[in-house]
Amino acid sequence: MKKAFYVVAMVLLVSILVEVSLLLCGSSTQTFKWRMATSWTLDNAHYTKEAVAICDRVNQLSNGRLVIEPYTAGSLVGAMDVLDAVSNGTIEIGHSWPGYWTDKEPSFELFSSIPDQMVIQEWLVWLYGPSRGIDLWQELYAKYDVVVFPGGLDGPEFGWFTTEPVLTLDDFEGLRIRATGLAAEVLEELGVTVVPLAPGEIKAAMERGDIDGFEYSTPAVDWLMGLQELAPYVSMPAWHQPSAMAETIVNQDAWDKLPDDLKAILEAACKEISMVDYLAYSEGANSESFDKFVQYGTTINVLGTEAMETIADITNRLADDKAAADPFYARVLQSQRDFRSNYRTWELWGDYKLYPEQ
Length: 358
Hints:
With 358 residues, the protein is α/β, with parallel strands linked by helices. The chain folds into two domains: 32-153 and 243-286, 3-Layer(aba) Sandwich (D-Maltodextrin-Binding Protein, domain 2); 160-241 and 287-351, D-Maltodextrin-Binding Protein, domain 2. It is 49% helix and 15% strand. The strands form two sheets. It has a six-stranded mixed β-sheet with strand order 7-6-8-5-9-11, covered by helices on one side. A five-stranded mixed β-sheet has the order 2-1-3-10-4, with helices on both faces. The longest helix has 37 residues, at 260-296. It is globular.
């Protein structure tokens, strides 16, 4: 009897082990198919390629276990509806820009770009270094049932395209300009009528004469979109966005269903494409694209130091007002300011022209 019992027990044990093994194998080979909504039209090749590259990299690294199909703006949801669609679970994942969501709360703009603040090389260090800006970013988006990762990092954007030359801050007064984020509020203080438009609406608005100018992205992006055909003047520097951070956003429930290895793959792909591949390609193409604008005949006008200091003063006052009314905004703004104040005491040693005098 004992022998028979042990035989039965061993058979049961083996059966259980086989079932557990099969379950584990089943979970490790489970596949997921997601749809990615983006804020980019097909002619917006740079950002569209970036979204596609993230999807392709995830598919490659996961051996097809997580397949993400990207869609251009309007195919699934409107360009300005991506966050809502991801938040409510209509779609699993999106690719967009945090500055588009400031109507929900102002803190979103601090994770995109504001005038006189984060420059390109500071984002990586602030997000993933001791300041852990990524934790603040996740905290904000968690309120919307969304997990967020970098979607693409750009350096300084091109300037303001206008139908009339802007040589001083006074020249902005009376213009109708497409702008977003805190820069739009700065322009309003300079007498501009701000017209918020999705990226895909800029060309038509200029051609109809609904606006007198606009800003969009870097020289490489702007040139590929054909924006040189819309206005003869560009006012520099790009004070409105000294850098720009796009986003990859994932519905929380969809994220929770992924096994840990696929979560790691998605996060790694976002970092790799956004902060290495795309960044290198985008920044590498900007100087050549800038030259193309000049050769095309675009007139580049440059605002002086006094004008830039005025813009910085307006920006800081507006940001301080928002911080006074919003504790989370205050936390993020202070984190970025503290980081920059500390980091720049070391950063300057990378360029001998900036070394402090002994």
